[in-house]
TrEMBL record:
It is found in: Membrane. PROSITE patterns: GOLD. Residues 1-18 form the signal peptide. One of its GO terms (cellular component) is membrane. Keywords: Membrane, Signal, Transmembrane, Transmembrane helix. The chain crosses the membrane at residues 176-196. The lineage of its organism: Eukaryota, Viridiplantae, Streptophyta, Embryophyta, Tracheophyta. InterPro entries: Emp24-like (IPR015720), GOLD_dom (IPR009038). The keyword Transmembrane applies. Belongs to the EMP24/GP25L family. Residues 28-143 form the GOLD domain. This is GOLD-like protein.
């Protein structure tokens, strides 16, 4: 008996679409799925009837095994037409599902539909589901809501202060401009007075 082994790897982190493939009698096909630790995974497989309305031929049966990355078997079904499995991953990595078609002469092709979904982190959900932790979360959320409200109030007050400061700033600026003009004028007139005073002083002393 000869087994042809074909491994094709699907690396879909969350939802894997159902896939279709064919296995020949006495052959095996494996499929890998990268599963994160603690995530829930659910698989469903069934043989597709090639002749709708007719019963499946008796040799259309499969053996199914699912393995952890380390090689421990998580699921096993023998000589079945369909089945399903579900487990929470205890290790990170590529989990393998192998489907073999039972031996038959002459060789026949068996069409299999395989749906493997994973990605729901079980640990987080089981924590959320506990009544006590829901209450604790509610309390935390209320505290957060209070904090947000007080931050909002503070921001509003700050905006008001900012507006006041801007008004004061504008007034100060215009006053400063006015004052500097006045002081310039004063300086110029004092200089003119000094000049005039010195000139008359020297004229009186007959120096000029
Ligand atoms: C499937 O399981 C049956 C029952 O154990 C076994 O006889 C048969 O060899 C298996 N077929 C394949 C292809 O592994």
């Amino acid at each position: 008996m000869e087994f042809g082994v074909v491994v094709f790897v699907l690396t879909l982190p969350f939802v894997a679409e159902s896939i279709h493939f064919e296995v020949e009698s006495g052959h095996i096909k494996c499929m890998g799925e990268d599963i994160k630790i603690d995530s829930m995974t659910v698989g469903h497989y069934s043989i597709v009837n090639p002749n709708q309305g007719h019963p499946l031929p008796p040799h259309h049966k499969i053996n199914v095994s699912v393995y952890t990355p380390k090689g421990d078997r998580l699921h096993y079904a023998e000589v079945v037409e369909s089945g399903q499995f579900a487990f929470g991953a205890e290790e990170d990595g590529n989990h393998l599902a192998c489907i073999s078609a039972i031996d038959h002469q002459p060789e026949d092709k068996i069409f299999v539909e395989f749906d493997w979904r994973s990605g729901v982190a079980t640990k987080q959900w089981s924590n959320v589901a506990k009544k006590g932790s829901v209450d604790a979360m509610e309390l935390e959320l209320k505290k957060l809501a209070d904090t947000i409200a007080s931050i909002q109030e503070e921001m509003f007050a700050l905006r008001l202060r900012n507006l006041e400061m801007m008004m004061i700033n504008r007034n100060t600026n215009s006053r400063m401009g006015y004052l500097s003009l006045v002081s310039l004028f004063l300086c110029l007139s004092v200089a003119a007075l000094q000049l005039w005073h010195l000139k008359s002083f020297f004229q009186k002393k007959k120096i000029i």
